[in-house]
Each structure stands twice: as structure tokens, then as C-alpha cells.
Amino acid sequence: MRLDEGDIMTGLIIAGVDGSAPSDAAVEWAADDALRAGAELRIVHVVDRRPYDITRFPVSDQEDHLRKAAGKVLEAAEAIARVRQPTVEVSTRSIEGVPSAVLREQEASELVIGNRGVGGFVGALLGSVTMEVAAQAGCPVVVVRAEQREKRGEIGVGVDDSDTCEPALGYAFEQARQRGATLRLIHAWQVPVHAFAPEVSYDLGEVRAAQREVVRKRIAAWRARYPEVNLAEDVQNAHPVDALTSTTCDLIVVGSHGRGALGSLFLGSVSRGVLHHARCPVAVVRSQEFVGGP
Ligand SMILES: Nc1ncnc2c1ncn2[C@@H]1O[C@H](COP(=O)(O)OP(=O)(O)O)[C@@H](O)[C@H]1O
Ligand SMILES: [Mg+2]
User: Fold this and answer.
1) What separation in Å is there between the alpha carbon of 130 and the centre of ligand 1?
2) Pick the CATH number of 12-144 from 3.40.50.620, 3.30.450.20, 3.20.20.150, 3.40.50.1820
3) In this predicted model, what pLDDT tens digit does every residue of 180-213 receive, in sequence order?
4) Least enclosed by CB within 10 Å: which of 7, 41, 54, 113?
């Protein structure tokens, strides 16, 4: 986004860093997004003392070691942000505590973290900090992977037939507007499978038309509010995780929970599946207990 004279900074984007490659990628993504949104960037490293709580080591030595390590992680991350977006306002902070708890409690307009960190085992797709922060933070959480991909000029959002996707839609429309990207409205539907009543049949043409109507109704108010955003309707007879991860987008936006799981400590199964299988950044936007659109 271009900042006009007189524009004020709005928002605080926080990138959580631990020195890993995915966390470096998160810093770059966060710096780009801070520029687009006209927001400030804060880089946070949480110093977790639990693994070092061993009394036979002299405490002052550990303190010094941990402080130095945290300083190095923050310094490296800050350098990445400044090289990437020299005009974005950047600050760093080192905070003591349990990483997932500290991060999800930050007051930010957005949290950006890697899909993995320095502590994961080979083959793990998602770290524990990633999962907990994505499920429990009050603000949108963007999960970034280390592998960079070519820009497509398109972002995708999952649309379902409940109000729980409203905050995700709001986030997605705003991202599309700021990027001048096409917004792909992805709605997957499946007919119920009756293992014991195979004679139950459906008119697929009718179901398809009804599902398209679901999307139109759901996004009508957003379309009116963001007339400049170019939309692509993508209604598929598929599993939602397949539908959301099979198209190549620059960003996939999903709600944190589906219908009926509000207030849960866990992510909904679609959000979790998308986080596991996506090859691009994923924004998980908290589903709020509210009804209504823009
Ligand atoms: N101590 C920390 N301070 C700040 N951010 C962290 C910290 N640990 C992890 N993160 C963030 O969470 C992401 C995922 O890390 P994590 O869930 O710990 O994965 P792993 O289990 O592979 O270490 C990291 O890329 C980083 O963005
Ligand atoms: Mg870790």
C-alpha cells in the first residue's frame, strides 16, 4: 500500500522469532504486511527459562548466556526486517515466559509466526507454539513457511454457511484490497454419505446451485463494502481442506473454528488441516461470538 502524506500509522504487527528459518520468513512477511497496512512492526523473542531450571548450574552464568542468545536472535531478526522494508518502523522486545502464552497474550493487530521453530523434530509440520497461538490468540495469526513461492496476485478465503467465517472474510477482503489482489471465495460442499441408505439420492445440479447461493448471500455485504476487490467464486464438491489447499494462492485465510466449536481451546479441523497442508502462508482469524457482517 502507498502511504500518502498525512497518513497515520495504524496497528501493531508482532512477529514472534526464535532464530529458525520459518521465523526469519515470518519477519519478512510481517515487514511486508506492515508496509501495506501502514502499521508498526515489533519483533518479540520469548525467553523460556524452563529447560534451564536445573539448580546445579550457577544461576548468573545461565542468565548471562540466555540474555546474550536472546539479543542475538532479536538483532538478526531486526536486520532482516530493515533490509526487507527500510521504511517500516521496527522495534524489538525480549520477554520472559512460556512462548505460546506470552505471544497469544500480546495486544497486537496481527501476530506472525513460523510453521516450525528450532525445537521441532524432523518431519514435524507444525510446532507446538504455532498450534497454540493459532488456536488461542485474540487477533489474526499468520503462519509462514520458510519456502518462498512466486507471487500469484490472488488470495483465497474459506466461506461456509455460518457466521463464524465473518471475521475471516473481513480480514481477507482487507488483504485483497491492500494488495490489489483477486480474492478467491472458496466454498466446499459434500453431500452426506449414508452408508446404510445408499438409495437416498440427490439432485447434484440443485445442490450445486444452492451452494452457490450460500456464497452469494454470505458475501453480499462485503462485496458492497469493497467494490474495488476483484472476486473469483470457487464452489467445489470436495473436502474443505482439499479445496482450500489445492489452489495456488499467496495467502489462505480461514476462521479459527467452525460452527459449534466457539470458545474451544483447539483449532477447528479445517483450520488445522489447512495449516498442515498449505504450501503458502495461512492466516487464521479468530471466529467471534457475534452475528452479522460489515
Ligand atoms: N521463544 C519464542 N519466542 C518468540 N517466538 C517463538 C518462540 N518459539 C517459537 N516461536 C515462533 O513460533 C514458530 C514455531 O515454533 P515452534 O512452535 O516452537 O516450533 P518447533 O516445535 O519446531 O520448535 C517459530 O517459527 C517462531 O515464529
Ligand atoms: Mg520451539
Assistant:
1) 7
2) 3.40.50.620
3) 999 999 999 887 766 676 677 778 888 888 888 8
4) 54
